[in-house]
Design brief:
Chain A: It is a multi-pass membrane protein. The complex is a heterodimer of chains A (312) and B (399). Chain A is mainly alpha-helical. Chain A contains eleven helices and no strands. With 399 residues, chain B is α+β, with helices and mostly antiparallel strands. Classes of the chains: A mainly alpha (312), B alpha+beta (399).
Chain lengths: 312, 399
């Protein structure tokens, strides 16, 4: 009992800490890529406490709910967006034996729960009573529909290769030559995951320069902060899942296993940030085309390749 | 709130169909959620309208059925104010309507007044004006080279563009004291002589900008997503351009080969090899490319002006003016190639110290009107790509 409680406390700690680190990394890395400094004052040393200061500010702000909003849905939407990622973190293994719960159908559980997160932005879009929000929610829904398929197909390829749906089982079965073998699947998974997170270049649903943050237009204060937190937890979860499924989790020379997992997670998170700095936004129909004409066939090719190698 | 605002307007216009969507549907009684067009207001407060332009769009799903630019939120009555200011004060006012091309705006006014007075401008002033006009063009184009990718979701080029703008602005600030509204033109020349060593510093600034320009090019020009978002989007044909009086880089991107710097030279342009950049595609990408190539041409022209200024013998930079400056009775039309297009002043004087009428023909006003033709049939997501590629300044529309 004590052990379970301890595991959960650690997971909640990671849930609160890792997104902040990724967020701060984004602030600073993006700034330096754009010949700026980024936050420099909060906390003293290179603005390390910027996001904590932001959080304090958000908590103090007035919680505005538009008159035309569907109040109940409007209020719970941020929670619906955030909590699934917390639940997903429970089953992600960081090292041998270092996980909240080891589910036999871990992969299945993860994919199912992650899909719920997107409901949050659809709910927010619908309930805000704002045309921009509805457009954003609509785009979110369309994007979720198309990108769930390549995501699941790519993930099932790994499950096929490992012969198990357990995340720890997949990491234990992982060999170095899976890297080239599952390379297509890894790229498809990562790209589709980016699209599910609505991160650039797939940020059409929130496009601040056209539909002004879409579903989040009407949100203020702590509820808005929860949406932002969900985005960064999403980055952590996506990077962690890609690490566990395709990059061998804690496998790696010299350093201890959990360190390797964290290194891989942060490298992937850095890639997510890097992509945001370098790319413009894709249009909604181009997004759909990429999913159906690009990613789904590629995922099927990967599935076939996995099957053929497995049978041989 | 938007829904409510529409309810009021629909009272005066009974044909307008207002549909509530989402939870806002309850705010519109007696209407069912059907597939009727949704009326969407872009602006006046919207990040892509660079100020307070408002577009009233009727959307069928994500497709634009009709589009109507609604202007006037920033109308300051500039033309009426011109009539109660003397010619020195008019320069201050005139440089404000297009705040990204302040120097180019001043030029038109002083050229008109000088023409009415029959005043000869000292040769050093002519070349310095040409140089500053080109630097102003560089500043203007850099702004749009940064802001257009930003509207398409590429957040980095704008920072590079602003770094270059800072470089040029430093020399502009040194000479005039201003970073946006230079107020450096005077009837008959410039306000003051060029500071010692300024030509060298400007030469270095121009070289720096030219050297670092590939940072922006490499980031955005060949990017697949950027190409996909802009190529073939918002095509504007030659006929529409001529009908609406569209000018500047937008017109040249559709193959309208008109540039007053070459076709009706003013200042020292007659002695300069002005390369007019044109494209034939007429889409958003062509407009962006024209802007980018013009920037390079302007840097070259600035270098040529610097070279000439170094060789010119010392001499006056302005004319001594009477205490009260009166333009003689008559009228004239002075038009210049402003960074965003044709900028003209029609000056009518009755021999008083203020103009009787000073009509301002601004580039953005004409350029934005054509949106009504361009937007229908496009996706809402393309709306921003098209709007951004029209390179307008709201002050220049509303005057």
């Amino acid at each position: 009992m004590l052990e379970i409680a301890l595991r959960l406390v650690v997971i909640i700690g990671a849930f609160l800490l890792l997104p902040l680190i990724v967020g701060q990394l984004e602030h600073k890395a993006m700034a330096h890529m754009q010949s700026r400094l980024g936050p420099m004052y909060a906390g003293g040393f290179h603005g390390w406490a910027q996001l904590i200061a932001d959080g304090v500010k958000f908590v103090q702000k007035e919680d505005v709910i538009p008159a035309a909003a569907d109040r109940a849905v409007f209020k719970i939407a941020p929670a619906v967006a955030l909590v699934p990622y917390l639940i997903v973190m429970i089953v992600i293994p960081v090292g041998p034996g270092l996980y909240g719960v080891d589910l036999d159908a871990g992969l299945f559980f993860v994919l199912a729960v992650m899909g719920v997160g997107v409901l949050g932005s659809i709910m927010a879009g619908w309930s805000s009573g704002n045309k921009y929000s509805v457009l954003g929610g609509m785009r979110s829904a369309a994007q979720l529909m198309s990108y769930e398929l390549p995501l699941v197909l790519a993930a099932s390829s790994v499950a096929m290769a490992a012969g198990t749906l357990s995340l720890t089982g997949i990491v234990e079965a992982w060999q170095w030559w899976w890297l080239p073998w599952q390379a297509i699947g890894a790229i498809v998974f990562f790209v589709a995951g980016l699209a599910e997170l609505r991160r650039p270049p797939f940020d059409m649903p929130i496009a601040e320069s056209e539909i002004i943050m879409g579903p989040m237009t009407e949100y203020t204060g702590i509820r808005f902060a929860l949406f932002m937190l969900a985005e960064y937890v999403g980055i952590v979860v996506l990077s962690a899942l890609t690490t566990v499924l395709f990059l061998g989790g804690w496998h790696g020379p010299w350093l201890p296993g959990p360190v390797w997992t964290l290194i891989k997670i942060f490298v992937l998170a850095f890639v997510v940030i890097w992509v945001r700095v370098s790319y413009p936004r894709m249009r909604e129909d181009q997004l759909q085309k990429l999913a159906w004409v690009g990613l789904v066939p590629l995922a099927l090719v990967q599935l076939a390749l996995t099957g053929v190698v497995k049978v041989l | 709130m938007i829904d409510r605002a529409w309810e009021h307007e629909s009272v005066s216009e009974p044909k307008e169909i207002v549909v509530g969507v989402g939870a806002g549907a309850s705010a519109v009684p007696g209407k069912e959620l059907a597939t009727e067009d949704m009326v969407l207001n872009i602006g006046p407060q919207h990040p892509s309208t660079h100020g307070v332009l408002r577009l009233r769009l009727a959307l069928d799903g994500e497709r634009i059925a009709t589009a109507e630019p609604i202007i006037g939120y920033m109308h300051r009555g500039a033309e009426k104010l011109f009539e109660v200011r003397d010619y020195r004060q008019i320069i201050v006012l005139a440089n404000r309507h297009d705040w990204l091309s302040a120097f180019a705006n001043e030029l038109g006014v002083v050229i008109a007044v000088e023409r009415m007075l029959g005043m000869e401008v000292p040769v050093r002033a002519v070349w310095a004006r040409t140089l500053l006009a080109e630097l102003n063009r560089v500043l203007n184009h850099l702004m749009f080279l940064g802001s257009y990718p930003l509207e398409l979701g590429a957040i980095t080029p704008v920072f590079y563009a602003f770094r270059e703008r800072e470089t040029i602005q430093a020399v502009m600030e040194e000479i005039s004291g201003g970073r946006m509204h230079y107020m450096f033109n005077r009837v008959g020349g410039l306000k003051e002589d060029l500071p010692l060593g300024w030509l060298e510093r400007t030469g270095r600034a121009v070289a720096d900008v030219r050297r670092r320009l590939p940072d922006i090019e490499n980031l955005i020009m060949g990017n697949e997503i950027f190409l996909a978002r802009t190529t073939g989007v918002g095509v504007l044909d030659r006929e529409t351009i001529l009908q609406y009086g569209v000018s500047g880089p937008i017109a040249r991107a559709s193959g309208v080969d008109l540039d007053l710097r070459r076709d009706e030279p003013y200042l020292a342009y007659g002695e300069l090899p002005v390369k007019v950049v044109t494209r034939s595609a007429g889409d958003c990408h062509a407009r962006f490319e024209v802007l980018h190539d013009q920037l390079k041409v302007s840097l070259d022209l600035a270098d040529a002006c610097l070279e000439r200024l170094r060789q010119l013998p010392p001499g006056p930079i302005n004319q001594r003016l009477p205490k009260i400056l009166k333009a003689p009775e008559g009228h004239t039309y002075a038009w210049t190639e402003s960074p965003l297009g044709l900028n003209g002043y029609y000056l009518v004087s009755r021999g008083e110290k203020t103009p009787w009428r000073l009509k301002l023909r601004s580039a953005s006003f004409n350029n934005v009107q054509v949106l009504r033709e361009m937007l229908p049939g496009n996706l809402l997501a393309d709306m921003v790509a098209i709007l951004g590629s029209m390179f307008f300044v709201v002050g220049d529309i509303d005057k």
